[in-house]
Amino acid sequence: MFDPKAIERIKALQRAWEADELRAFLERQPESRAAWRTGSGLPVERVYTPADVAGTGFDEIGLPGRYPFTRGPYPTMYRGRPWTMRQIAGFGTGEDTNQRFRYLIAQGQTGLSVDFDMPTLMGYDSDDPRALGEVGREGVAVDTLDDVEALFAGIDLERISVSMTINPTAWILLAMYVALAESRGADPNRLSGTCQTDILKEYIAQKEWIFPIRASLRLVRDMIVYSAERLARYNPINISGYHISEAGATSVQEVAFTMADAIAYVEEVTRAGVAVDRFAPRLAFYFVAQADFFEEVAKFRAARRVWAKLMKERFGATRAESMRLRFHCQTAAVTLTKAQPMNNIVRTALQALSAVLGGAQSLHTNGLDEAYAIPSELAMKIALRTQQIIADETRVASVVDPLGGSYYVESLTNRIEEEVFAILKKVDALGGTVKAIETGWFQREIADSAYEHARRRASGELPVIGVNKFVEPAEPGAVEVHRVSPDVEARQIARLRATRARRDNARVAALLDRLAREAADPTLNLMPVTVELVQARASMGEIVARLREVWGRYVETPAF
Amino acid sequence: MSSIRVLIAKVGLDGHDRGAKIVARCLRDAGMDVVYTGLHRTPEEVVTAAVQEDVDVLGISLLSGAHMTLIPRVVELMQAAGAGDMLLVVGGVIPDEDVPALRALGAADVLLQDTPPDAIVARVRELVAARQPR
Predict the structure, then answer these.
(1) Chain A partners of B34 at a C-beta cutoff of 8 Å?
(2) Do A373 and B65 touch (CB under 8 A)?
(3) What is the C-alpha to C-alpha distance for residues B14 and A9, in angstroms, rounded to an integer?
(4) Considering CB atoms only, which of A118, A130, A338 is closest to B14?
(5) Chain A to chain B, count of Cβ pairs less than 8 Å apart?
(6) Could you list the pLDDT tens digit for every one of the 134 residues in chain B?
(7) Which of A374, A454, A557 lies closest to B117 in CB terms?
(8) For the segment A196-207, what is each residue's pLDDT rounded down to a tens digit?
């Protein structure tokens, strides 16, 4: 990007500065520590100059909306419309969460995002003994299509995009979503939104699973293929680094492991004979915005460039849409503290800013009460207002990739990209993503990083305001905590039983038999039979239990 | 003196194992014998394992909010198994107002988020030392 002679002049200038001003200054006042590192542990220099990016051609940085998409997936980014403000919500029954959705829409939220309770995520009905104490607690309870009807009552699914945070049972939720839209006469090709669906990162990090890896991958493939054929605007998967980060990975590992998962999905679908350009444009991503501000901005930029190169060079994609990485972002829950909870508003605002400067397509900002419970209405409103202030008051959205060209950010972007490709090479050498999961490689890497982080935090090397620095006595009742209403479980179970009593049980049984037969043949797509099952009011627990008989269950070898 | 034996367990459906694994490693590094159950265990599985391993301390991690349902069940099973002298320590995301209730149920202590690893090690040693010799 720079004339080599100019680089030589700059290097000479810097050497002179080091010998003169810098040296004299350091003698008077030494720096506060010997070495400086990013949150991921990458070395950080004192100051950056064109010499640090001398080897970077402008084509590596480029222009937004054009390969390699370093600067953003679209040419105008937030000048067309701001990112989607998408606060996740979910608790109690479908009706309870529907109320929260309406509240958030009334506050100016522009997309919906659903959190499901643990039994729904893991494929247990609300009346299963394993669900005891967990119904409607960490998210909304869904057993049958009737619950999804209540969840989206009065919400126009052709007009608002809906993201569903669900993985092992994602295909059932997608089937319910499609069945609901069709029952209302909506055109499936006009549905927009995302299902998380990323099962590989579950084995790696979030740890919600049901079936063995191969069977789970087949379900992901079925969803991607089904969506490519029938849901033109829907993202059937959100390949996620967020949980990998929350489990303890560094930001470099987050991107690398996410890309390793993405590679496995692309391989799985292309193996089924679907051309990469037919489905890749609908693959979406999801990253965290962690605490190291510039590293995060660089991370998002590097992730876009890595994906573009992978798609073009490794998979031979030819459509620009296949190479263009789009991502949802969430601020880092793990950085939020129970002590001095109001500080969390500030942390979240800064993390959100890095997501915006990094070019996120949609954003969830965490509630100040994150370390206490699922968020209260007030906590969610402040979090949403934080995004609105960034969008409307700071003017950071006026220019696309405003940090592009910063010597530091460009240099860090290059470094993260290199590190990510090095890790991907290692994963290939280990026999690929699935193999590396089976041997526990990712899991050990993350546990090591988490342990290291905990040690650094305990030693005070990693300051956390209010926890290991500027500590104050605890204030009891500092925040009002969301409480789950005690009758949720009873209400939910009553509805499930009423649905079971009303439906045609013979038809459900026949469809479950068909599901078991089709599951045994890996060439078949299980989406159509699942849509019929949910229309017949089969419950999620029944569908999952039947498939467990066919496929068995995943067993992790726990290590720490 | 033989080393302190600890079972770290995840009960219920939540998959948050970052903290449990860090605690397990810290206790092991401090010289304790540590077994980790892995995720998604039922109270029955956990208490059976704790009895079989003959542990001094059963550490249960929950971040799902289901502690007021699952911990009473664990206590009940411990009593039924005659493991009354085993120390139960609860950790995770637990609202402050539930802490006295968990202690009243029989938890030897409730260690909340942001408890430094060294403090956890010290507390476990202290609890075991204060217990009647077995």
Answers:
(1) 560
(2) yes
(3) 58
(4) A118
(5) 99
(6) 589 999 999 999 988 999 999 999 999 999 999 999 999 999 999 999 999 999 999 999 999 889 999 999 999 999 999 998 999 999 998 988 899 999 999 999 999 888 999 999 999 999 999 986 65
(7) A454
(8) 999 999 999 999
- Of the candidates A124, A206, A556, the beta carbon closest to that of B38 is on A556
Query: In a 3-state reduction of DSSP, which class is residue B99?
Result: helix
Which tokens belong to B131? 């217990």
Q: What is the DSSP letter of B110?
A: E
What are the beta bridge partners of residue A84? A362
Q: A469: which strand partners?
A: A465
Residue with tokens 């950056």, as numbered in its chain: A48
Q: Is A391 helix (H, G, I), strand (E, B) or coil?
A: helix
Give helix A527-535 / helix A170-183 axis angle, nearest 10°.
60
Q: Which helix (H) or strand (E) holds A136?
A: none
**DSSP character string of A361-372:** SEEE---TTTTT
Most B-contacting residue of A204, A207, A555 (CB-CB within 10 A), to test interface: A207
Which residue numbers of B have CB closer than 8 Å to A's CBs? 8, 12-18, 20-22, 24-26, 28, 34, 36-40, 42, 64-66, 68-70, 93, 95-96, 112-114, 116-118
Chain A residues with beta carbon closer than 8 angstroms to that of B118: 458
Give me the numbers of helices (H) and strands (E) for chain B, helices first please. 5, 5
Q: Would you call A470 helix, strand, or coil by DSSP?
A: coil
Whether B15 sits inside 8 A of A202 (CB atoms) is: yes
Domain positions in chain A are 4-53, 63-459
Domains and CATH numbers, chain B: 5-130 (3.40.50.280)
Instruction: Tell me the chain A residues in contact with residue B37 when contact means C-beta distances shorter than 8 Å.
Output: 558
Q: Terminal CA-to-CA distance of chain B, rounded, Å?
A: 12
Question: How distant, in Å, are the alpha carbons of A124, B17, B28, B43 from that of B56?
Answer: 33, 22, 14, 17
User: What pTM was estimated for this model as a whole?
Assistant: 0.95
Which of B16, B18, B26, B29 best probes binding to A when mutated, by most A CB atoms within 10 angstroms?
Answer: B18
* CB-count exposure of residue A395 (10 Å: 0-12, 13-18, 19+): exposed
The dihedral over CA atoms of A81, A84, A85, A89, expressed in degrees to the nearest 10, equals: 160
Which of A272, A182, A159, A180 is CA-nearest to residue A226? A272
Task: Extract long-range pairs of A5-8: CB within 8 Å, 24+ residues apart.
Answer: A6/A50, A7/A50, A7/A51, A7/A54
**What is the residue type of A36?**
W
Domain spanning A63-459 has what CATH number?
3.20.20.240
**Closest chain A C-alpha to B93 CA, distance in angstroms:** 7
